[in-house]
Amino acid sequence: MDLKTTYLGLKLKNPLVPSASPLSRTLDGMKRLEDAGAAAIVMYSLFEEQIEHEAAELEHYLAYGSRAHAEALDYFPRPDEYNLGPEQYVEMLQRAKGSLGIPVIGSLNGISTGGWIDYAKKLEQAGADAIELNIYYIPTDPALASQEVEERYINVLHAVKRAVRIPVAVKLSPYFSSLANVAARLDRAGANGLVLFNRFYQPDFDLDALEVTPNIVLSTSDAMCLPLRWVAILHGVVKTSLAGTGGIHTAEDVIKMVMAGADVAMMCSALLKHGPKHITTVLADLNKWMVEHEYLSIEQMKGSMSQASVADPAAFERANYMKALNRYK
Amino acid sequence: MSAQGVNTTIKRTMVTIDGNEAAAYSAHKCSEVIAIYPITPSSTMGEWADEWSAQGKKNIWGTVPLVVEMQSEGGAAGAVHGALQTGALSTTFTASQGLLLMIPNMFKIAGELTSTVFHVSARTVATHALSIFGDHGDVMAVRSTGWGMLASNSVQEIHDFALIAQAASLEARVPFVHFFDGFRSSAEVMKMEQLADEDIRQMIDDELVFNHRERALNPEKPVLRGTAQNPDVFFQAREACNPYYLACPDIVQKAMDKFAKIVGRQYKLYQYYGAPDADRVIVMMGSGAETAHETVDYLMNRGEKVGLLKVHLFRPFAIEHFVNALPATVKHITVLDRTKEPGAPGEPLYMDVITALSEALSEGKAPFKSFPKVTGGRFGLSSKEFTPTMVMTVYNEMKKERPKNHFTIGINDDVTMTSLAYDPTLGIEPDDVVRALFFGLGADGTVGANKNSIKIIGEDTENYAQGYFVYDSKKSGSTTISHLRFGPRPIHSCYLITQANFVACHQWFFLEKFDVLQNAEKGGTFLLNSIYGQNEVWDKLPRHIQEGIIKKQLKFYVIDGYKVAGQTGMGGRVNTIMQTCFFAISGVLPKEQAIAAIKNSIKKTYGRKGDAVVQKNFAAVDATLANLFQVTIPEKATSTLEMPPVVSTAAPDFVKSVTAMIIAGKGDELSVGQMPHDGTFPVGTAQWEKRNIAMEIPVWESEICIQCNKCVLVCPHATIRVKVYDPADLKNAPPTFKSMEYKGTEYKGMKYSLQVGPEDCTGCSLCVEVCPAKSKSQVKVKAINMKPQPPIREEERSNYEFFLGLPEIDRRTVKTDTVKGSQLLQPLFEYSGACSGCGETPYVKLVSQLFGDRTVIANATGCSSIYGGNLPTTPWATNRDGRGPAWSNSLFEDNAEFGLGMRLTIDKLTEMAWELVAKLASEIGTDLASALLSANQSDEAGIYEQRERVNILKQKLQSSKTPEAKNLLHIADNLVKRSVWIMGGDGWAYDIGYGGLDHVLASGRNVNILVLDTEVYSNTGGQMSKATFRSAIAKFAAAGKPTQKKDLALMALTYGNVYVAKIAMGANDAQTVRAILEAEAYDGPSIIIAYSHCIAHGIDMAKGMTNQKLAVETGYFPLFRYNPMWAKEGKNPMKLDSKAPKLPLTDFTSLETRFNMLEKIYPERARELMVLAAEDIKSRWAMYEQLAGGDGEKAKQEGLPKP
């Protein structure tokens, strides 16, 4: 069975790619993903905001209470060097490249243009096969128009594309007034791939403590419908590679995503839940399904149920209740 | 001396470092094994050694010295002794009591003629009081050990002599104490030339090192050393060392001469400076000699024939070298000793000089024929200032026909009239020296910025630079005064600046606290950080500041540093901004060059902590100059603002006349006659020191409050209090005083008030953090919320005064075994100078509430002895009956024994009182006697009744004349149950005092030991103790602690008859209260390990209680109580008070810099240690569960959350 696919110009042995998650925090973790059959790995995200926050926090606490009392002029040793910037990430990436056979995609989560460029260059130098820009932004300012928000995405991509030669994918959120338009503009701005979609952690309330708490819930297959729809719509419309992510748990989910037009299906929650070996299971199931259904290759299947390929393209444009009404006609 | 080396091929760099670093650098280069232990002011030498080794820095033989922290200085000396005996080059660093603890080993090391150097930042030895500051009391206490003693007077000399001593010791086989003045030299930052490795290589003769190794214990060719000898041979054997001591001075001089050849600086054992034909000569050691050196220059320029003999080699005292260093013309010698030996015919150096002169003259070896007049004086005890005017006074005294002998200089002795009067206004410093004073807060970064300024000027220009920093005794809101000098010549001025040509005040509120312009020189510059601009600031200034500016014709500049800091993300740290202003105004460097230098220094200081911090500081520099303005000075002072009185007029006389002076920074002006003779001070004095350091204070919302009293419990400073009282008491309440109905049945119908002391609160906000009550309509509003202090200060002051006047609760009615009940009791530990948000003091305060009126406290040296007993004031207080904790601090190492001694006295006196009551039963009445002897004092009511009985007894005894009655009268107070509390930190309990603590636990006596476990030596700056958790970074554990935390509780528990508890107030406050009550009630030894969050953890102190909670929930600090009484009841004595760890360890450790930091320095090691730390937690929990009767195996096998 030919499971090969091409994503961001990278030749992959199959369409299963673990997305950025804690599983790629250690070299051992990444090796286990490769051993299980992953075609490529998107490394855990390098958060510019976190790096800067940690540096500021370290400086604050090292200085806090110092030079205030004759007996305790400070409270910590004074090391020559701190491993504060992206060095640790870069080092991990280098080591991963040294010991893995599959492509490694660096994931970058930035807040400032300067940060995006610097870190992207460092990832390229460390040997990343590609970069995934995880543009995570919740516009809460009522004065900020949607146009400006979209411009930020485009500007970030422009800046990074100018700085590096390796392929760059953009991981998007679904919350755009005109997602197709944004996708097309990112395509024109040079994106080599679009990753659909980012899942935001949504806040929850703790009713005992009356506090807002982060609600970290793993996805289920149900979550897949949203990226499935947009992969299907964008397939053939944009020139970029497409990755579907969010809710992909089974071989059937992978098949659907490929049929919609995705070059790769990215997996996170399922791996966190079942462990890296789940990839082996899914690949076996995928193979089995394709044999049973007499498919020859992934390429053959890719986009076979995209909006352009289905008999009823409007199915992707209608809202569900319209469908329901139609059925009762 | 030339700063340029003779050997021009060796490249040396000029550095600006302090004396400790200068000593440690040379020592680390020449050592293989270094044993360390923290003690102020020497700790930083050990810290440097540990850090350098952690960073892989090598000695001159290319290997990284092994640095090991010991449990005490005694242990460090023992380890060094062992290391030396087996052939390593070994050293240690210490001071004061630490050096005293080394004495036994020092005798041995010298007796065995072993080459080594101990570096000592000489510090006062505790007598009537502890003092961390400098004098020669400690080194003089070891002068009989047989060690060589070499004194350094300046930072450069410290660096050089550390090496010279090492070289000389190797050849002479006499071990050396290399000492220098604690603080004045150890902490003074000075520009100096750093020795190159090549210098050190040339100075140390490897053949001598090989000889040292050859003498080592070696099983290949064993010898016996350390025999026991009898009267037949000991004496002779002791005399056998004489040749080494006789040869030693020449060897030291030879090393000095060799050093001069290599490096260029020529030293002498006894270095004479001054007129070759001087008639008056001062002989002295230490930093004071630098001041005398400077004064000699001044006097010689005025034609005076004066001289100074600096004693470097104090032991072996080389009589010939000494006398020959004196000018033949000398008529009068004054020997100045920086120590006091009560009862001696004179101080040590004085005595030595007399002996030396006497011997030399009698043997015809002196350069003069007749015995010069010799007088002696004491100066500089505990870093007391020693200034040129004092030196001049001493020289002037020598001119007198009958000069005073055994005088003191620098104080006013109005009791035994020893002091010489001097003119404090006289100064001799030349005009071309920039003398700058900076008043800052510990928290605003002033000292750090000034240290950078010194580096900039010292390392980027030809100028010499010196910095010295003065801190107050508080750990929260402390004031710092930086004294900086820059000039074209080497600086010998080892004293504080009293004629500043630049004064900067970095905080506005200092203006009403101190006279910041007192030491400003006429025509100087004054820089003020002010929220008021150049046009409005004048009218806001207090009158004394206006007058000072006009009278001294100062140039006056203002900057709104807070605004610039706020705009550039610097928060409250105005350091970089004020530093930029200093360079802009002072003209030390051209402006552009200065700005570039500041930015360069910012990069050096913060660069390793990330670019964001650098950029923030750059932005602050760039924004500064546009906000700096010169103020036009009006001709007349117009202000009506006067400095408020230091303490209230209601304060007791002693507080007004003595304490207030110390608070105001005028303690130097107090005379001997104003001091207690035996170190005894009144208690309850912190209440008079209104510090007003909180920007925000908590404000009570009574309608939300559920009256849980948790905020009162956690308040580290006892500034939130509650009272329950009769509604009628509200009659004269101020208009804004708040009260509400008491919720609960026990005081139904009474009123409840929660009140904050606005001027005592430090603004830590721990109270807000623990408040569980939230507004129903806006959850961010709690029952207590932080609000700006200034607008409400006045009204809350009145409210607090009224509140304090309300009656205290009748202790007999209180349910003391609940959090709520315990907090109705008056705290007898209040307003301490502990860190804002301190994790220790809530426990201490709770003990004072529960038992304070009948408690005797033995307090180990450390944070708790400093916030408990450092002048000017003490937080230990009394109730309205005048009762309260009787507190004392003996030492660091002996606290458990000290407390046991107290218990033994109480037990004995109680027994004697019982015996006398029984004996005098007929005289005092058999009913009373019987009641006294059978009293049940297990609760407050029982104690109350016994007190009543003792009062009646004392009245009856007053009129009796029998010896037994008189005796009983004096000990009758012991009939009321007394509670002995032995308190201290983990450094004491786990390390230095453990042997004693263990013995006291084994004694079976009724003592209560409270271990305030911060897991580091907090007071000395966060050094590792055996309580430090595995993987935490601490000083002396710069690469993270590799071994697990000692389980002191478990060790104590093995006795079986010891009450043991582990408590963490933030996790389980009810358990905390119960454990403390149970420990006290248990008639035997008890020990409580109280988890105390600490500023040394690098945490958000406002969230300290949350960290405690997570420490418990992650299993990092499990809670339990082990009560032997339960075993007697047939129950399991061990009760776990926390649940099995439910959260991963990282949920706790990620909140603390001490753990985070390792990840950022050595990520791999951090991960490895964290895995081991998680294992520690797992196995410890399994063991506890087993002890508590649970299935420990289950926990072991099922595992716990991963880190």
Q: Average pLDDT value of chain B?
A: 95
Q: Let me know the average pLDDT of chain A.
A: 90
- Poorly predicted regions of chain A: none
Oligomeric status: heterodimer
**Major β-sheet strand ordering of chain A:** 3-12-11-8-7-6-5-4
Tell me, what's the shape of chain B?
Answer: globular
Radius of gyration of chain A: 22 Å
Rg of chain B, please? 32 Å
Instruction: Count every helix of chain A, treating DSSP H or I runs of 4 or more residues as helices.
Output: 12
Class based on secondary structure composition and strand pairing of chain A = alpha/beta
What's the CATH C level of chain A? Alpha Beta
CATH H-level homologous superfamily name of the largest domain in chain B: Thiamin diphosphate (ThDP)-binding fold, Pyr/PP domains
Strand order of the largest sheet of chain B: 1-8-18-19-17-20-21-22-23
**CATH fold node name of chain A:** TIM Barrel
**Binned strand content of chain B:** 15-25%
